[in-house]
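Thiamine pyrophosphate enzyme N-terminal TPP-binding domain-containing protein structure dump, as promised
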Amino acid sequence: MNNNALDTTYGRDTFLSLLIDEGVTHLFGNPGTTELPIMHALRD
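structure tokens r here:
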């Protein structure tokens, strides 16, 4: 098994790919919680 960092898939990337595949065009935050990791992934 190859443990190369390039083979790593992050949950955020899978989640964002799913949103794109499903045609999601808007994403809303939830006051009182933190969606910063998702927002940062969207920026990237």
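Residues 11-42 form one domain.
lmk if u need the other ones
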